[in-house]
Amino acid sequence: MIKIFKFTAIAEGISYLVLFANMLLIKPNNIDLYKKLLYPIGMAHGVLFIGYVVLAFLIMKSQKWSFKDLFVVQLASLLPFGTFYIEKKYVKNA
User: Fold this and answer.
1) Is 53 within a domain?
2) Residue 91: what pLDDT?
3) Which of 5, 7, 19, 71 is the most buried (most CB within 10 A)?
4) In terms of residue numbers, what domain contains 73?
5) What value does the mean pLDDT take over residues 52-74?
6) Binning pLDDT at 50, 70 and 90, where does residue 93 land?
7) CA–CA distance from 47 to each of 13, 16, 40, 42 (Å)?
8) Which helix (H) or strand (E) holds 52?
9) What's residue 16's pLDDT?
10) Residue 2 burial (10 A CB sphere; 0-12, 13-18, 19+)
11) Is the distance from CB of 74 to CB of 53 less than 8 angstroms?
12) CA-to-CA distance for 17 and 91, rounded, in angstroms?
């Protein structure tokens, strides 16, 4: 389960950065490019984000996280590069 969380954390962080970069590059009036590029990336990021949150709750006990640690782990999912930090600092035994 921990290996899956580590993979999900990295994949969620990458999808977040790719989505953010594409949002900056695509002009708002280009709806065709939005439908072809941003929608699938956004959908993948959403699925990975939900997986990250659920897996964090599931491995909380095995990693001996307090509620403060869980809060930090969940908060990091909202920040660019946050999941990379969590994967290195908080996840052990993988």
Assistant:
1) yes
2) 81
3) 5
4) 2-89
5) 91
6) low
7) 12, 11, 11, 9
8) helix 39-59
9) 92
10) middle
11) yes
12) 21
